[in-house]
């Protein structure tokens, strides 16, 4: 139904179905109309939320705020922007995956992803990539860091290193 033809204050639509097939075994189904409200990626994600942007997509989204990593601590991302399915399979699911020791291991362990329906303007059928919204499994408290410098001998031994049992 072309929404431009609907009255501005309309909240209901009447659907009239005329079955002209003449075959008694045929049937007609009617579903509620789908009327998506489309918004730009900037409107949804914004420019201040921390975003995990996959390597292939990094330069395409200059308005989003990449998650920060400082002093070995990663900012918890609220969103993930992925490339198209082929690039995700070849790149993100290989060296970036958690099983390969990549950064997706952190998001897979801490966050629940929800894939949002997204479309490329004026080209709805094209696979542009994907947008995930993250929800924390258990909200992480801010990291408490002790920063400083120290000079140590090459023989300094603060304790055993775990080398097995990961």
How does this structure look, described?
The protein is an alpha/beta fold and 166 residues long. Helix content is 12%, strand content 16%. It is built from three helices and seven strands, in the order αβββββααββ. The strands form two sheets. The protein has a five-stranded mixed β-sheet with strand order 2-1-5-7-6. A two-stranded antiparallel sheet has the order 3-4. The model has no long low-confidence stretch (mean pLDDT 88).
- Note the gap between the termini: 57 Å
Mean pLDDT equals 88
The proportion of residues in beta strands is 15-25%
Secondary structure: helix percent: 10-25%
In short:
The chain has 166 residues and is α/β, with parallel strands linked by helices. It has three helices and seven strands; from the N terminus they run H-E-E-E-E-E-H-H-E-E.
